[in-house]
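Researcher: Last one for today. Full complex below.
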Amino acid sequence: MAFPKQVRLVEMSPRDGLQNEPGPVIATAIKTGLIDRLADCGLTHIEAASFVSPKWVPQMGDAAEVMAGIHRKPGVCYSALTPNLKGFENALAAGVDEVAVFGAASESFTRKNINCSIAESLERFAPVVEAARNHGIPVRGYVSTVMGCPYEGDIAPAKVAEVARALYDMGCHEISLGDTIGVGTPLKAKRMLDAVAAHVPVEKLAAHFHDTYGQALANLYAVLEDGVAVIDASVAGLGGCPYAKGASGNVATEDVLYLLNGLGINTGVDLNKLVATGHWICQQLGRHNGSKVGQALGGNCQ
Amino acid sequence: MAFPKQVRLVEMSPRDGLQNEPGPVIATAIKTGLIDRLADCGLTHIEAASFVSPKWVPQMGDAAEVMAGIHRKPGVCYSALTPNLKGFENALAAGVDEVAVFGAASESFTRKNINCSIAESLERFAPVVEAARNHGIPVRGYVSTVMGCPYEGDIAPAKVAEVARALYDMGCHEISLGDTIGVGTPLKAKRMLDAVAAHVPVEKLAAHFHDTYGQALANLYAVLEDGVAVIDASVAGLGGCPYAKGASGNVATEDVLYLLNGLGINTGVDLNKLVATGHWICQQLGRHNGSKVGQALGGNCQ
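Model: Here's the assembly. Have a good evening.
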């Protein structure tokens, strides 16, 4: 076993969390309040928004206002999803520190989601990555459905490796491997990771595991054993699962942090403040707190 | 890594689950319906009741009626908690296959729970174990608070080992190690297990991990790596945490089974039937289904 000494948590709640929240569009002030609180917890990488057409994702329609409204904390990377060149230009104008493109390892998922093949999706990302390079903006690459697809079931680790490598070769500085529907288990996670790490250095990989079947922490523990040192998570488990009503999506950042603290792995994030932030955003949204640590510690910590 | 090929799941819901349910006393027919359904899922070890004074645990007041009402399936071990000799005699009369005594690794917890020292608690168990031996009834020994105590915090692994060994030497055939408040993390679980396994053979140990902080599956994965092959769990996560309102207690059997299936470990338990049983009991009790697998699969599986 070779656990990393330090893990960087990449906070997903303002983007991957809120974009999946049902109900009315969330006020910009709540989004900026969440992002500022997350930075105050010690998180150094926060995916703040998605620069995507509001027709597709109404919840993210105020991305520029969100970026303008936050109090930027030195040392924090505020990133945003930018599916195309127009999104990239808007994100650049809004002053994001990093952009991200979002691919998948499943042909069916790619087809259903963005109506093209994986190869075509990669072609669409290329100009975004190139424009970002020209502006000195790092690009994060997401690969979703790495341990299973809602349409075609199992995904071959070699396919995940192929897409991850294509994004890495294109210029993405970090590849986030998403178990979008949370169907993975630890040995599957290790096999998938091993396949990818044969093509992309493990220090360039992030684990983005959803907790739909309750397996996320076990899977994270398994890939931490293999040296993964970047983990995506969402405070209070914000963001449900679009493929199973009432089920969990993102693993809760509080629960991941509790695990890492227990393993003696440093993150620089304050658990009490994070739990309080989870309770705060759940109160604002009138939703259940999806973090077990949050539930266990109640509203007592400040 | 040396995962076991086969794991025995010990189903806790009829006892450790239901005894913690708030609200009115649950009808005997619901309890027997649950137990019969669990046996039909393929579970071979079900803790069916607690033969304890109804003054202490009103929810378990019908233990004898439960034992009389179930349809006993050949090959299934129906066990019961028997804190004292009177409880043992009643359990024997009711025809249980196995009895269990319940100790703790924390002096403060023992004092608060049963108003005596650990040493005194072991003295109280001795006549139960002896009587069981005389009747050829195997005895399971529980050790609670193995990774932390609500009153004194950390518990030394050596203390857990001492109590586990005392129960084993007394004649308990299996020792179930309980993280009663769910505060453990994987390396802590491994250290605790290693300390105990130096005194009691690992094949005589069971992991009874609560999911209060969401760590149970990661902890189970960690001790499976070390050869633990008996796991206690409760369908639908039945039984909350008496130490944190609204928090989780027992890890859900469905979620454990999903993990084990993913690791290729055989249990003989049918996941779809188990999920259906979880939904059934939650409907009967009007409570939330605490299994993430249950939530993800909804009520669709039969």
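Chain B has one domain: 8-296. Chain B has twelve helices and eight strands.
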